[in-house]
Write a structure and sequence with these properties.
11 helices, 335 residues, 3-stranded antiparallel sheet, 6-stranded mixed sheet, Rossmann fold, alpha/beta, 2 domains, single chain, elongated
Length: 335
């Protein structure tokens, strides 16, 4: 019965004043106890010590049953109602396409364990923060394709993110093709705000699509592009070749990112260029983009109520019936 009190409000709480009668009833009960049960005089009680019967013990429960009945009926009179809340969320969603570099250089170890794993983890955290947005995933290396179309099912999207690995595409860095594929996914969207977050760690060195031409197309469709260059400064251990068994051979490689190109793409489309030199700075970059591209949310809250008094009335009547039944049958006292 106590579980019924969760999320409960009372329409007529003034009935709880009746509970103040409990001490008065208890006082009256014990005051009149001797008048209701005639005393029996005996020369000694020595032989009756510790011989109280089960019926005698159970009779002490009768007042408790009556008290429980009284309390339950008072609660029923106070008319308890369970509050059922409904929220209607109206959101001006943002469509976001994540374009992620999968070239072999993303296995460089200046991030731990490598650039790709850190980029996947931070991107997944970003996706979890954008619960009202449609987000898609495009991957590119020497070529590009859509890994996940725009969706609000972020569990599925993060599943795709977690399974990304280098080597599934022809090697190279086709920034233009990656951007063009992401733009193609957004251009027909009716969303008022469309964003591409392009993450790469290299220089455009392949592909038939010019990165600046892709950026101009993005501008035509009012698509904002945020570009992120991933990689430390100086040299780091990164793949230099690949063996016949598919495993990469690591060597010391100079970090090269075409920052000027990424900056131009971002400025042309109204976005911004960022440089991530470690995991912490990459997290800060995504947090900054999250703040810049906030979703406008309007929440209307509705309240519905369900009547719960009948539960308490049922228990109150049940306790009373049990008390009366026991008092005048099994536990009946002989005058």
């Amino acid at each position: 019965m106590l579980g019924l009190l969760e999320n409960i409000t009372f329409v007529s709480p003034f009935f709880f004043v009746l509970l103040l009668l409990l001490p008065i009833i208890a006082w009256w009960y014990f005051r009149t106890y001797r008048q209701r049960y005639a005393p029996m005089r005996m020369s000694t009680l020595e032989g009756l010590e510790n011989t109280q019967s089960i019926r005698g013990r159970l009779r002490s429960l009768l007042p408790i049953l009556r008290i429980l009945s009284f309390v339950a009926l008072v609660v029923a009179l106070a008319r308890p109602q369970r509050v059922l809340k409904e929220e209607e969320v109206v959101a001006e969603g943002i469509d976001i396409s994540l374009a992620m570099d999968l070239s072999s250089s993303m296995l460089a170890q200046d991030f731990q364990p490598n650039r790709l794993e850190v980029s996947k983890r931070v991107a997944a955290d970003f996706v979890r923060q954008r619960q009202y947005d449609r987000i898609g995933l495009v991957v590119f290396a020497g070529e590009a394709f859509t890994q996940c179309p725009l969706t609000t099912d972020h569990l599925v999207l993060n599943e795709f993110l977690s399974k990304l690995e280098c080597g599934i595409l022809e090697d190279g860095t086709a920034i233009g093709m990656g951007l063009a594929t992401a733009v193609n996914r957004l251009k027909d969207s009716d969303s008022k705000s469309k964003v591409v977050i392009l993450l790469t760690d290299g220089v455009n060195n392949t592909g038939y699509q010019s990165p600046m031409l892709a950026a101009k197309i993005a501008k035509e469709y009012n698509i904002k592009v945020y570009t992120i260059g991933v990689g430390s400064v100086g040299e780091t251990r990164a793949p230099v070749s690949r063996r016949s068994d598919g495993k990469y051979v690591l060597g010391l490689v100079r970090v090269e990112i075409d920052e000027e190109l990424l900056r131009q793409i971002a400025e042309l489309t109204g976005g911004k260029y960022y440089r991530a030199v470690d995991e912490q700075s990459l997290e800060q970059i995504y947090a900054s983009i999250d703040q810049l591209e906030k979703t406008k949310i309007e929440v209307t809250s509705f309240k519905r109520y369900s009547e719960e008094y009948h539960h308490f009335a049922f228990w109150g009547i049940l306790f009373l019936l049990i008390e009366v039944l026991l008092r005048y049958t099994v536990l009946r006292a002989i005058p």
